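Structural prep section.
Before we set up the soaks we want a predicted structure of the protein with 9MR in place, mainly to decide which crystallisation condition to try first. Input record follows.
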Amino acid sequence: MTLTAKSVARVTLVSALLTAVAGAAIIGASPASGAASTLGAAAQQSGRYFGTAVAAGKLGDSTYTGILNREFDMVTAENEMKMDATEPNQGQFSYGNADRIVNQARNQGKRVRGHALAWHSQQPGWMQNMSGSSLRNAMLNHVTQVATYYRGKIYAWDVVNEAFADGSSGGRRDSNLQRTGNDWIEAAFRAARSADPGAKLCYNDYNTDNWSHAKTQGVYRMVQDFKSRGVPIDCVGFQAHFNSGNPVPSNYHTTLQNFAALGVDVQITELDIEGSGSTQAQQYQGVTQACLAVARCTGITVWGIRDTDSWRASGTPLLFDGSGNKKAAYTSVLNVLNSGTNPGPTSTTTSSNPGGGGCTATYSEGEKWSDRFNGNVTVSGTDNWIVTVTVSSPQRIIATWNTSATWDSANVMTARPNGNGNTFGFTIQHGGNWNWPSVSCRVG
Ligand code: 9MR
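Run finished without errors. Recording the tokens verbatim:
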């Protein structure tokens, strides 16, 4: 075959996954045919769950229960398993409303996250005034009794909820439980493990989404310490209550990944994002992508079904409107879940030059973060290459290496050798669009 110096050989990335992803990236699009049509079924395709908080008092609302039964495969009691609900008087346990939720879920084949065994808030009155060893013993008895009662029925327990302080300290929150001694958290985990060895045991908190925040770092150090000392902890819950003052951080994927690297599962446990329309949908998409990008992110729970069910209803933070209609945010989440993994393909694919002329450019993906990803291109067939890299809106190439780059337009970069061999790379800020760029090679 004769190589023609000026021949232009367009290399097209051929990937079934890419085709699927192209559909997934369009907010508001219908799921591709063959894709799952509910959140739970879509999440199950990658071995994950998609859950919601449920209020016992709403189970008689047929719109509410219809959506619950259709869409979700994990359930959290919004308030009914908290300490004030389950032990209203010391030593007297009350499980009526919690049981309604647990039984409804299990009858429908759904699993249950238990929330929460020990917390500074929503304590029954009798506990609020206790201190010292009597409080410690009462807390441990509560953990033991409730976890024993539900033994075998709970996928994961929030053993301890919200024990770290907001702000810059990175330390524990002051509370009556904290004042019983810094080891109260590990004591609670050990009691929960003894009571229900089959449940995953989670630490759950809010404002722990941004990797650079002191609170996130404080929780990370505790989990690291627990793992190093054999304290039984299996998972970390990220509540993920977002709004304009507390937006989804660009390093969210980093946070989830770093915790998972400690050897725990991570779960998004109380997701809601105030807003509306495509802005809200994109943020939901980003959170879902971040979870899918982390192998040990085992599932996502939203904190309620319809906007009107939310603890902050005025912020319309959920996936269904007050009438039970699917919002744009719903569709964006479903489409990401249907992509099966992070929409960026996860394996390196070699593309060949079907025309055989000039040179071949092969794209392979590099590291991924919540807001950007790296790509590398390897050229064969010539040392004198000119490679055109085209990204799709709203993507932007924000960095390059091992190449001399010029720009034809904001979306089209021309790359040439700069003396560092025939592999070069770049960083794409993706803006929610995880599609690979197209690359084409010609001989210079
Ligand atoms: O959604 C819950 C709301 O109905 C209760 O009034 C409130 C009481 O503290 O708790 C809400 O749920 C919280 C959850 O248990 C822990 N993380 C924050 C949630 C929102 O406040």
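Observations: The radius of gyration is 25 Å.
Flagged for discussion at group meeting.
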